[in-house]
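call fold(seq) -> tokens
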Amino acid sequence: MLSKTLLSFILMLFVVNAMGQTGSISGKIISEETALPLVNIKIEGTQLAARTDSMGNYTFIKVPSGTYKIQASAVGFRKMVKTIVLKSGETLVLNFDLSNLQNDLNEVVVTGTLKEVNRLESPVPVEVYTPGYFKKILLQVFLKLFRM
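ret:
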């Protein structure tokens, strides 16, 4: 009888201890001081994933303590990964400031062939438009609109 009671007590301590070895992670995702909705947040090496709400906030609860890589990604933004150490019972705040990919676009090449062709080897004329070209065209359109 005493051994069953002792065994039950030890088992209960084990369960309580195991339950207490989790923490939570929450934070906000922004870009250029603006909250980003619908950003995917993933804890690498686990099945845990979330998506930010309309205010850019996310939360993971009952995450086992340990070292993790947290990844934030969204269409049009550079993916960011941060490494964290989550302690038992800890509520960790982890914010991300994602950079916009629109600044990474250098040029767009459009061809009229049915298969992939190197620009220099193309049988049809190829024009390359750089960001400077689009800025120049935009300025010309802007000036025409305000001359009228």
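The mean pLDDT is 81.
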